């Protein structure tokens, strides 16, 4: 089919139908899509039937009490998001983007690590350039954050994982874009011992000493990487206690016969304790990749493009990455 024949075929397809299709595929629910677009459920049901006839595909398939995407719907969703985003840019009446005049909220999904290590740099940097920007850091839940990125309630996600495909790795759908911010290694926090002050922790001590873990969830990557390091050398870690927040680690290490292993920048950012020292490891533990993620929907949005660039630069500057 030549270009003009294709254009004639598309002449009767209106943008509203594509917007409705996108809402249905994202919500995977007629009632949910209707609520998002502010129309009645019967009207959305009729629109779904028209779209099914136009595309020759069921699009949404019932599985039990829920609806799921058909294989074709799943395959066209990324392209559909690009099309709607491009149409929005074309029809936008906004003038050149000016960070100083922007008025909007920025929601960043992340964990405690991100807030302890990066929040100060991010907030101060963005506030200086875009004083009308209101930044909110929200907890990143594996079960909901992808949905929040899709519906726009979260703009960006900062997450730690491994980008080389080895486990534990982040399961990232094709609808997300990402950029590596930096790589992070582990250090040890231990009670000061005049006989071994400043000495790197040996593998033998790593395996023989009781550990204080920081695990906000059952899938915390630092725990998995430390377990992997022990298993690689034929050992098993002895965990004496687990806390959900790193803020209490220095005081516990100072009073209990335990050591704790944290990402370097988090360990350095914690409150100083006179009885605790930070030491290097004399053996290898896999590094953590700290990555910024965003959805197709905002990939070409000028304010979000600017924000991603500024956030990347200020984060890398804060952790000493040389670019």
List the helices and strands and how they pair.
Blueprint: H1 3-10, H2 15-27, H3 30-37, H4 41-55, E1 60-63, E2 66-69, H5 71-91, E3 104-110, H6 112-129, E4 133-139, H7 145-151, E5 156-161, E6 176-184, E7 186-191, H8 203-208, E8 210-214, H9 221-232, E9 238-243, H10 249-255, E10 259-263, H11 264-269, E11 276-279, E12 288-295, H12 302-318
Helix pairs in contact: 2-3, 2-4, 2-5, 3-4, 6-12
Structure report:
By secondary structure, the protein is an alpha/beta fold. Helix content is 43%, strand content 22%. It has helices spanning 3-10, 15-27, 30-37, 41-55, 71-91, 112-129, 145-151, 203-208, 221-232, 249-255, 264-269, 302-318; strands at 60-63, 66-69, 104-110, 133-139, 156-161, 176-184, 186-191, 210-214, 238-243, 259-263, 276-279, 288-295. Strands 4-3-5-12-6 form a five-stranded mixed β-sheet. The protein has a five-stranded mixed β-sheet with strand order 9-8-10-7-11. Strands 1-2 form a two-stranded antiparallel ribbon. α2 (15-27) packs across α4, α3 (30-37) crosses α4 and α6 (112-129) packs across α12. The longest helix has 21 residues, at 71-91. The protein starts with a helix and ends in a 5-residue tail after the last helix. The mean pLDDT is 87.
């Amino acid at each position: 089919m030549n270009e003009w024949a294709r254009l004639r075929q598309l002449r009767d397809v209106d943008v509203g139908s594509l917007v409705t299709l996108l809402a249905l595929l994202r919500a995977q629910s007629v009632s949910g899509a209707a609520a998002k677009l502010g129309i009645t459920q019967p009207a959305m049901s009729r629109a779904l039937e028209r779209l099914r006839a136009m595309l020759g595909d069921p699009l949404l398939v019932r599985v039990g009490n829920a609806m799921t995407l058909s294989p074709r719907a799943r395959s066209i969703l990324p392209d559909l998001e690009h099309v709607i985003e491009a149409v929005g840019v074309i029809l936008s009446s906004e003038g050149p983007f000016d960070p100083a005049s922007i008025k909007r909220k920025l929601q960043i999904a992340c964990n405690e690590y991100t807030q302890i290590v990066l929040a100060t740099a991010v907030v101060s940097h963005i506030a200086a350039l875009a004083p009308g920007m209101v930044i909110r850091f929200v907890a990143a839940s594996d079960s909901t954050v992808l949905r929040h990125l899709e519906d726009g309630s979260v703009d960006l996600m900062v997450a730690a994982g491994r980008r080389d495909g080895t486990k534990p790795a982040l399961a990232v759908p094709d609808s997300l874009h990402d950029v590596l911010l930096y790589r992070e290694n582990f250090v040890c926090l231990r009670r000061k011992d005049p006989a071994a002050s400043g000495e790197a922790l040996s593998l033998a001590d790593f395996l023989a000493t009781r550990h204080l873990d920081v695990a906000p969830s059952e899938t915390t990557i630092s725990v998995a990487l430390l377990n992997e390091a022990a298993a690689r050398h034929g050992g098993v870690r002895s965990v004496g206690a687990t806390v959900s927040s790193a803020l209490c680690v220095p005081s516990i290490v100072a009073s209990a016969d335990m050591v704790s292993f944290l990402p370097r920048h988090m360990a350095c950012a914690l409150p100083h304790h006179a009885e605790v020292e930070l030491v290097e490891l004399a053996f290898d533990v896999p590094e953590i990749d700290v990555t910024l993620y965003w959805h197709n929907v905002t990939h070409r949005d000028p304010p979000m493009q600017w924000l991603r660039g500024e956030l990347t630069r200020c984060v890398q500057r804060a952790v000493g990455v040389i670019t």
